[in-house]
Amino acid sequence: MLTINTERLLRLLDNLAEIGATAAGGVSRPALSEADMKARAWLKEQAEFYGLNYREDSAGNLSVILPAEDANAKTLLVGSHLDTVPNGGRYDGALGVLAAFEALLTLKEAYRKLPYHLECISFTDEEGTLVGLLGSSALCGTLTAEDLTAPRGGRERLLAGLKRANLTEEGLLNAHRDPATLAAFLELHIEQGTRLEEANIDIGVVTSIVGIRSYWIEYLGDAAHAGTTPMDKRADAFWGAAAFTQQARDMVMERFYPGVINIGAVELAPGAFNIVPARARLALEFRHGSETELNAMWAELQSLARDIAQVYNLSVQITHSGSIPAAPLNDGVIAAIEHAADTLGLSHTRLMSFAGHDTQNLSRITPAAMLFVPSVGGISHNPREYTRARDVVNGANVVLHTLLKLAQA
Amino acid sequence: MLTINTERLLRLLDNLAEIGATAAGGVSRPALSEADMKARAWLKEQAEFYGLNYREDSAGNLSVILPAEDANAKTLLVGSHLDTVPNGGRYDGALGVLAAFEALLTLKEAYRKLPYHLECISFTDEEGTLVGLLGSSALCGTLTAEDLTAPRGGRERLLAGLKRANLTEEGLLNAHRDPATLAAFLELHIEQGTRLEEANIDIGVVTSIVGIRSYWIEYLGDAAHAGTTPMDKRADAFWGAAAFTQQARDMVMERFYPGVINIGAVELAPGAFNIVPARARLALEFRHGSETELNAMWAELQSLARDIAQVYNLSVQITHSGSIPAAPLNDGVIAAIEHAADTLGLSHTRLMSFAGHDTQNLSRITPAAMLFVPSVGGISHNPREYTRARDVVNGANVVLHTLLKLAQA
Q1: CB contact, 8 Å: B311 with chain A?
Q2: What is the rounded distance in angstroms from the CA atom of residue A44 to the CA atom of residue B126?
Q3: At the topology level of CATH, where does A6-209+327-408 sit?
Q4: Which of A288, B168, B207, B334 has a Cα at 20 to 30 A from A403?
């Protein structure tokens, strides 16, 4: 049975981890930083060294290509991203790119003839130190000029990064590819959670990438003297906010598992020991793999927010902050991953991805799916991020055999 | 029956309200501001005009005196304060000073011989735009040099105010009076709440000024990815903070009435939509008129804070922020106020003061009590602060007859 070159893959991972390496053993390689530019140049060198084609699109997405014999064949994309968060780890993104690279090399060296061009791709700025899922949005044609005007990393940093990479906003906005030329997309990633580790399972097959909705929930009451105003005469905005936090948590845990909810920030006004809060603003985010469930969650949460306002003699204002739709993944690609794992004798389970990935963009234009390998302790975005060598190799072999399975389709 | 000169008292109140008057109909007369200096000069003029003695101590406390025949008699203090909060009202403080002034005038004009020197006093900076209860702390000997190093209004403003009034820090720290020279202290004030208005009662007899305790309650959990961390694996510090807020409120309302609790500020860290809060810091304050009850409240609150930490897999750190002890008032002076109200045919009820007043300082060195008259709508520290003329007059007459009753003792 064909398998990847374990030694080479682990060496490629080690070599890449030296680019942007931090003293703490992590990696700082933010998108289009000097370190990222070095990693990009390194990938090109590797492609050339091993005799694979190399290409870069106008969004800075890097491709290493093993062409099919038929020049008109569709392209099977497989990859992830080279960029990291500041002070991140060695595996997030890097594993997916290098496993794909190694799978292509293995197929090239085995002289396998596939009916698709195989393209190992690294997307620009997955992590969002500039924009977030930037390269895959550009490739999928969903990036807008507006996304670039006030990016989360700041406009100046974006422009500096584009200049460094010899890219332009116009190029970003014109990087979309024709879906008719694509056969499928596959991404290997570390889990960034503990479900696989705890269940002692080799491979997680991702059925959906969760949608994320965020809102500001603002309770409004009356500022009052915290001494002279009797408790039963108060309209304390924080009482509403605290009750909402508790009841929303309980409701989501009881009725929307495995969906999750977070209240990550709170602002009270006026905000003094001796003044009853007039205003309490909660930063609410919730996630689920199904849009139907997200709609149901939101209906329940709104109703809860309003019921609580009545109980505490408050009003409530709800402001939309952002939405990312849930991305159900492709049954055919999911089945190919499971078939590959079975072929290799690896255990697997289906799960949702509760973090965002480039796969969610690709899933909107081509059959796409992704697989996870275990993260030790679930630690990620941290120098202590670690995935055991055997799981690295398992993941790459599943990528290889998934490509082979998809090639039969 | 002897009663005060209604017309004169209302005119004095109107005249004083012109000093520092705001366009909105309120009064801005912060301690030792230019407006406060004008009000002080005005009070001295009134004393001289009406043939009463005038004195100012080294803390800037102003006294208008009707001396007893016996120069060695003790002094019966009665008063409040001329300063206001910025953009405050016409009655808070001013009523207590002018009712005392009018009572002295009435007794003088009636040629009543009392066995005490009667001293109408206005304390410096009751409101705390500089230090808070400054003049009464100085008079009672509890002011320390430390209180002046980082005052709540800022060191610069304090020094500027002292200079304007020709006062010194040394003078403040040496303004204490010998308790053996004092007979009692009495203060009339507006209620700044709605209990009297709602019960349609003329006079509130204050039995205690609440103690205030403030603490930071900080829950500590683990920052985590708000998507990939399952709900049941989180140590969300805000879950603890929200549960504590709710349960502490319910506990105080059920078991410590009329005690009150407030959580006036909250800080979450890291503080983002997509990060589970690692840290939630609550600004907790609670008040009660009895130190025994304050101790019991605090024992229950600490126990609750720790129980909740366990439930949510958090730790909790509690930091003391400040304490003002409860000030139970003097039974003899309370009885004299009630006797005076009965004499005048006015309804009265006992209550606690949930706000701080100079009386709490005086109560530590001499028999002291205070009375409230209704505030319309409970509004205070606001240009709309209002007390009806009949309640102003009732209050002043109760002051007059309380002095007469105390003089019999």
Answers
A1: no
A2: 75
A3: Aminopeptidase (3.40.630)
A4: A288
Note whether B252 contacts A: Cβ–Cβ < 8 A.
yes
What pTM, to 2 d.p., does this model score?
0.85
Residues of chain B with CATH 3.40.630.10: 6-209+326-408
Q: Is the preceding peptide bond at A270 cis, omega within 30 degrees of 0?
A: yes
**B301, B284 contact by CB (below 8 A):** yes
- Alpha carbon distance B380, B261 (integer Å): 20
Nearest chain A residue to B258, by CA:
A230
Which class for A292: exposed (0-12), middle (13-18), buried (19 or more C-beta within 10 A)?
Answer: exposed
Distance from CA of A59 to the nearest CA of B (A): 27
Q: Chain A within 8 Å of B195 (Cβ-Cβ)?
A: yes
Give the pLDDT band (50/70/90) at residue B150: confident
Q: Is a pLDDT exceeding 80 seen at residue B409? A: no
B107 to chain A nearest CA, in Å?
A: 34
Cα separation, A46 vs A54, in Å, equals 10
Distance between CA A43 and CA B283 in Å, rounded? 53
Q: Are strands B182-190 and B211-220 parallel, antiparallel or unpaired?
A: unpaired
Contacts of A291 (CB under 8 A, 6+ apart): A211, A325, A326
- Looking at residue B164, its pLDDT comes to 98
**Per-window interface: A 346-375 vs B, CB < 8 A:** 354-356
Q: Are B227 and A354 in contact (CB under 8 A)?
A: yes
Q: Give the span between the Cα atoms of A253 and B389, in whole angstroms.
A: 59
Taking only the tens place, the pLDDT of each residue in B13-65 is 999 999 999 998 999 999 999 999 999 999 999 999 999 999 999 999 999 99
C-alpha span between B299 and A362 (Å, rounded): 58
Q: Do A273 and B225 touch (CB under 8 A)?
A: no
pLDDT of B239 strictly over 90: yes
Q: Output the six-digit token pair for B154.
A: 């800022």
Average pLDDT over residues B276-289: 96
Q: Would you call B345 an interface residue with chain A, using a CB distance cutoff of 8 Å?
A: no
* Record: contact B193-A273, CB cut-off 8 A: no
From B252's Cα to the closest Cα of chain A, the distance in A is: 9
Greatest pairwise CA separation for chain B in angstroms: 85
Q: Where are the alpha helices (DSSP H) in A212-285?
A: 237-255
Class of domain B6-209+326-408: alpha beta
Chain A contact present for B85, CB below 8 A = no
Residues in chain A with pLDDT values less than 70:
none
Identify the closest residue of chain A to B321 by CA–CA distance: A273
Nearest to B277 among A264, A268, A381 (CB): A264
Q: Nearest 10 degrees: CA dihedral of A404, A405, A408, A409?
A: -140
Q: pLDDT tens digit string along B87-143?
A: 899 999 999 999 999 999 999 999 998 999 999 999 999 999 999 999 999 999 999
B158-163 mean pLDDT: 98
**Segments of chain B assigned to CATH 3.30.70.360:** 211-324
CATH of B211-324, one of 3.90.1170.40, 2.60.40.2550, 3.30.70.360, 3.30.160.20: 3.30.70.360
For residue B61, give both structure tokens.
């406390």
| CATH 3.40.630.10 domain locations along chain A | 6-209+327-408
Does the bond joining A328 to the residue before it have cis omega, within 30 degrees of 0? no
Distance (Å) from the alpha carbon of A246 to chain B's nearest alpha carbon: 7
* Burial of residue B2 (number of CB atoms within 10 Å: 0-12, 13-18, 19+): middle
Residue A27 is predicted with a pLDDT of 96
Phi and psi torsions of A246, nearest 5°: -65, -50
- The CB density around residue A171, as the number of other CB atoms within 10 Å, is 16
Q: B73 touching A, CB under 8 A?
A: no
Q: For residue B113, which phi and psi values (nearest 5 degrees)?
A: -95, 115
